[in-house]
Amino acid sequence: MGRDKLGSRLGFILLSAGCAIGIGNVWKFPYVVGQNGGGLFVLIYLFFLVILGIPVLTMEFSIGRAAQKSPAKMYEQLEPKGSKWHLHGKVSLIAVIC
């Protein structure tokens, strides 16, 4: 059985953005902007979103491409022998579900 692929680059970008942003930030954002100074807060928020988000997203894509597995299985495949990094994958999945 072959792997599914996205139809276009735009679809990939929108899917990645949707996963990274999350619906909680979309609903909470207007309230946070109103409470914390409006425009200046938005500029600072976007600055740190880019500064912190791009390296994390790049690392996630790199690890996923190297392992060619699901997020939980990639830790088991790529970890050095004797380390406990596979536990990080399982804890991350539990945190996302809860």
From TrEMBL:
GO terms for cellular component: membrane. InterPro entries: Na/ntran_symport, SNS_sf. Keywords: Membrane, Transmembrane, Transmembrane helix, Transport. It is a multi-pass membrane protein. Pfam families: SNF. The chain crosses the membrane at residues 12-33, 39-59. SUPFAM superfamilies: SNF-like. It is found in: Membrane. This is Na+-dependent transporters of the SNF family.
